[in-house]
Input
Amino acid sequence: MLPHMRIATSSWFKAAFGLKAAFGLMASICLIAAATAAFGQAPTPSAAPSAAPAAATRPQRPTPPTRDPNTPGFVTAKELADGVNAPADADGNFIIGPTHNPATEMTVQPGVPQGTVFEFTMSSADSKIYPGIAREPGTFGTPDPNDPAKLLVTTSHAAPYTRHVAVYVPAQYVPGTAAPFIVGADGPDRALFTALDNLIAQRRVPVLVAISIGNGSGDAQGSERGLEYDTMSGLYAEFVEKEVLPLVEAQAHVKLTHDPDARATMGGSSGGSCALIMAWYHPELYHRVLTYSGTYVNQQWPYNPESPHGAWEFHEHLIPNTSVKPLRIWMEVGDRDNFNPNVMGDHMHDWVVANENMARVLAAKGYRYQFVFARNAGHTDRAVKQQTLPEALEYVWQGYPVTGASR
Output
């Protein structure tokens, strides 16, 4: 049985919304971004100020079209035989599918040492950085009439949350040594832990700890998850560094390295863009990034004039106009990934185009990256992850020593 631990909560932290001054203008600020998933609950009545526009209900997302990876304007990519993954030591662009069979490393293998998973919870009452917000169920926002790239959200308010954290410690970890690690979004991610058992035993990745952090609930603009994952700043990485990692060390009885080359981030959808945001704004903390269906679109909340188009800025301005950072990046997108030409009408909500743009600008700047376009695949497609995660992890950890990865 896995050891389960609980962090005791303390009194509610009554500070306003985090460290950013923009939060003080929550009710009136013009907010950018676009809808991703929200909830299927019925709208909840709310007492919005009379001067504010009426809260809009979440628009229905259209069925995504199937994209051809050879579309003009997309990056040139090598088409692999059906069922074959991209080589773990090769940079560049690859096309896989349409069949996605799970890799053997994604199932428990006889005779392979299994790590221990420690679990605990974190309360918003104990956070100095994220005291908690939520958007009213069933509501969304309305476009700013002066700028379709901004969204007016009037139904977001302070709200508590509890997040779950799962920490995988490999059987080969030597107590007292500084371990490399990977931080994952939207946890717990049991599939990651199984993959690491097998990859570590095969000496294909180092003996690393995996820290799988649950989000603070909700999705997209006005939600806690959206605030954490879609904000273009170093704040979430700072939250992990200051509030999560000390608990991990205490609860899982591990020592975590401070070497950025021995630290990785990963996630899917907004968790994927969050993984890159963490490393981009804090390359002194993280050098390795792994993303599935990264939300490199206009979904930041609240609006920030320094990055007015949210994570779309990565391929629009930031990567092309910034000196190369010491990052190694693995990315995937599906041919039926999210396509959301929503009420904003800003043309910055196409996940396939966003990830294709990412591959193009990363190549132009000379980054070490691998981009996988998956045929017959949707958004954060489970079958694709089951096929590719071992290879993706091995690619991300290229160049890091794996000596002693098995007993």
